[in-house]
């Protein structure tokens, strides 16, 4: 979809709806999330999926699908925040009535497994969504104040200075690129290849992130995207801090940097590693479907156009 729909900005006092479209959350995590969001000055509504558990899912597929749709239909809810990722978004991606979302656009936030929903909502409905922190991360050691301050700044429409790289930054191909952002979790993007919900990367800035994967596994996922032509027409690539898993004792590896350079150096487009988005702290918010500018020599990313409509 070429048209872009921006949601209305979030203001103090607005209602945030909490859903779990993928994995379940613990009761204590949900309680902390509600308490923290209330403390930030927002009203909170919880969907049925927020308190459900069906093995590794937050309730059966029908519950999670209906919950997502009902939050977009609810006139009191201004923003929909996902509580956690895990696994399950791809199970409902073909069950959603996307016309509901198109007719009732609003802020939608999450990352990791939620990548599948970001891509589907943007490409089917045209709505800009937000790759950012999730509700379960308002608990204990996972809470990062900077992540949430940035999230609310972006959602309110306030200017955010260009995001800096993290300590693991290195440039792969220096240069500057501007355009619409797409992407997210590498595992989810790979899983959707060959389906109607695969990511469209043409003329986009591509964000890739993942966590706890060995070098050979990331190699395999990148290679599948390469073979599917997903790197052929991108304007630039932003690689997050992947926080690699340790290689198995009986499985020798190759240097991670050398591996990713084999994929991206030949493209000759701006690319860098070490952006703080996704499974890292801080987790900077970026608009999927929004306009960004990347400077891969400096490892910086900037939102260049307000991704929300002022209210």
Automatic annotation (TrEMBL):
Keywords: Carboxypeptidase, Hydrolase, Protease, Serine protease. The keyword Transcription regulation does not apply. Gene3D superfamilies: Class I glutamine amidotransferase-like (3.40.50.10740), LD-carboxypeptidase A C-terminal domain-like (3.50.30.60). InterPro entries: Carboxypeptidase_A_C_sf, Class_I_gatase-like, LdcA_N, Peptidase_S66_N, Peptidase_S66C, S66_fam. Residues 16-132 form the LD-carboxypeptidase N-terminal domain. SUPFAM superfamilies: Class I glutamine amidotransferase-like (SSF52317), LD-carboxypeptidase A C-terminal domain-like (SSF141986). GO terms for biological process: proteolysis. GO terms for molecular function: carboxypeptidase activity; serine-type peptidase activity. Residues 178-294 form the LD-carboxypeptidase C-terminal domain. The active site is at residues 112, 209, 279. It comes from the Bacteria. Belongs to the peptidase S66 family. This is LD-carboxypeptidase. It comes from Thermoactinomyces intermedius.
